[in-house]
Write a structure and sequence with these properties.
mainly alpha, about 50% helix, three-stranded antiparallel sheet, disordered N terminus, 2 domains
Length: about 200
């Protein structure tokens, strides 16, 4: 994979994906050969073929050209974020406990979170994602709405015929436990998003 740097011109999309990977691993000359699910593996393979780095076992040695391209990569045009994309991002923020999250995103959520880059969330530090200023506002507003809804929650009996008192009591306990856990997770997320500085 050690092609002469610059011998193959990369498309804009590939250069952006390469820049995201380098930023993901902290903009270092040697980085783990780990590609998070939010970054295109195909683009990284093309970048390596173009000489932007050399794969060495479980590491990638980034060439000077690779560092330059990562630094000068064109700004990624923000795709339109759908309601489903935003829902996935907000639920991931809740699951992760706040505005700074692991970049090891579950496979099912990865396409949704990728559409939120870079408008609402960006790579931050090594192996992390963090909300941008716009992300803090959009996600924060949605979290507050979810929190208000959860605070108003009340258990409603199923009303199904044949449900025994013991079964109803077990259902009430189960649903109440889920409510308490969800409420605590929402409060943690709201607190973190409100206090954590936005990524730039």
């Amino acid at each position: 994979m050690s092609t002469k740097p610059g011998s193959e011109k990369l498309a804009k999309k590939d250069r952006i994906e390469w820049a995201l990977l380098v930023a993901f691993h902290g903009n270092t000359e040697t980085m783990p050969a780990t590609v998070p699910s939010t970054i295109s593996m195909a683009s990284i393979k093309r970048a390596l073929k173009a000489g932007y780095g050399v794969l060495d076992g479980n590491k990638i040695h980034v060439s000077p050209e690779g560092l330059r391209v990562a630094k000068e990569a064109p700004e990624k045009t923000a795709p339109e974020v759908t309601h489903l994309n935003l829902f996935a991002l907000v639920e991931y923020v809740i699951a992760q406990g706040g505005a700074t999250m692991s970049a090891r995103v579950p496979v099912g959520d990865a396409p949704h979170l990728k559409r939120c880059i870079p408008s609402l969330v960006v790579p931050y530090g090594k192996g992390q994602l963090r909300l941008t200023a716009e992300g803090r506002k959009v996600v924060g507003d949605d979290l507050v709405r979810k929190l208000e809804k959860e605070l108003a929650w009340q258990y409603r009996p199923s009303g199904y015929p044949g449900v025994t008192p013991q079964g109803e009591a077990a259902a009430r306990e189960r649903e109440t436990t889920k409510h308490v856990q969800r409420l605590a997770a929402l409060e943690r997320a709201v607190d973190s998003v409100s206090k954590t500085p936005a990524a730039t």
